[in-house]
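G., the chain you wanted modeled:
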Amino acid sequence: MSAPPGELIAVRYTHVISVVVVVIVAIWHFGYDSMVLVRGWSRYEPAWAALAAWLVLSVVQLIGSTLLLRSALRGRAAQALTFVALLAGAVAVATYPKGQAISDLSWAANTVGWFGVLLLLQRPIHELVALLSCTVAMTVIALGVSGELDTPVSWARLITTSFTTAGIQLTFALLTRQLHHAAELATRAARAQADRMARQVAEETRHAERRRRYRYMRDRIAPLLRDLADGRAHPGHDAVRRSSAIEAARLRRLFAETEAAAHTLLHELRACADIAERRDVDVTFVCYGELPDVPVAVRRWLTEGPLLALASAEVSARVTVVAAAGEVTVSVVADAAAPGTLRTSGSTDTSVIFDEKENLLWLETRWRVPRPRSTSASSTITRW
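Predicted structure as tokens:
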């Protein structure tokens, strides 16, 4: 399942930042460090130790980059890899010729700093500050051992080098955190906007549904009630009683449409049958097969004919629902008078048979379940 649009913003920002850091560290170590190591190979003491440190850092870089791009660089793994990189850097610094701690041959301290940016990208900033301090300390110790800290020029070189290496790395790390923070703000803003739009759509839907129900009651039920109130319709007449039962069943079905139920079609049919049972009609309900999800408009058409039959039933009625072969069929057999012409939609078929000798009405509504549209191209979900 794909993530929401707001979350994708943060995921993509984080992934892009991770890729940029991995590329920078890879180019720096496999490009610049390799060139420096080859050029000064004969001057390192011993050279095999410098090469071993370079190889260890290469392994750390590959493991750390892989874990970072897979979002699997957890706390302990990041700290362990950082410690290994710091030890390898210390070994490489120890192989520098005397007086070359800040020169064209020195590469390890700066590289370990970039490794810290990669490995501690998702860790608290104080851990990176501690690592960068260690890299500066390695250079200071190397200068002190060689006796180069006695002159102001050496201190100036140390401060300048530290600013252009550890300072840039710390600034880069702070910048990535600001970008991540901006992505989080964008995510929250997108999520809030999506929530507002969802609430607005829900309110508009509820308002439209209320207006539909009001129009239904105004157009169908209000005239019947006015006729009863004005005396133009008498409750004792069979036609009036049948019309009242029909409208009561429709109103009960209208309420049932918004009620939570496992099978909405069955729930609405039972609501229609409830009106008949209140008139002491014996209603039998049978269902076969697994019902698909039936849209509201189709449910109204499927239940309209059975509703008329149940409202006209006098003694007994049998309701049968069958879901099979891509169709949903609702049929009613009742001792009722033949209803008038039934309106049908393009999505349902209605059949009516009336046996005048037995005074039995058989009514069936059928809906063909539409087939899902097949897509030629498959969608790809990328996991960041």
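The mean pLDDT is 79.

Shout if anything looks off.
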